[in-house]
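BUG: 3D viewer hangs when loading the predicted structure for this chain

Environment: internal workstation, default settings.
Expected: structure renders.
Actual: progress bar stalls at 90%.

Input used:
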Amino acid sequence: MKVPHSDATLVAAFLQKEPEAAGELYDRFASRIYGLGLSLLRNKTDAEDLVQDTFLKIWRTGSAFDPGRGSLDTWTLLVARSLAIDLLRRRSLEARKLLSQPKVSEASDEPGPERRAEVSDLFRRANQEMARLPERQRSVLELTYLAQRSTKEVAELMGIPRGTVKSRAHAGMAVLQETFRSGGDDAA
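Structure tokens produced before the viewer hung:
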């Protein structure tokens, strides 16, 4: 039986395109990355893609691994987690874009021009106010409301305590509610 590589030699061998190192790296991490992907992304195909994307990123950025700063396990799972969060953020942005475009129904009970203008203005103001929020509050609101994640999941995704997630969500919602209560005249 072959002795497993140390973290540093495994990454170095992987970067040198040694098939045994690639196999060892895959055997050590693929199932854990897949499990992380299922937990965060809630989709088997996305979790499978996360495994592939993680190994590609390690291939491209493996020279950045520093065994003095932490274990290969931690670094690899942080790479996977970052890729998963990036995907969730992209989806959140796409959802915000879709929400910002009011849909016009073809049904006979279609709202009149005044109601469509009112809804369009509401979407515009909501997007403007979301963009004005600090990134930390905006990210929490996007993950909580647009990506429909629980506070526990958001805390895990962002690497912060649940209480911080709740505080940021509360603070962001308070700003948005105040803007809409006051009519948002300063947003125009």
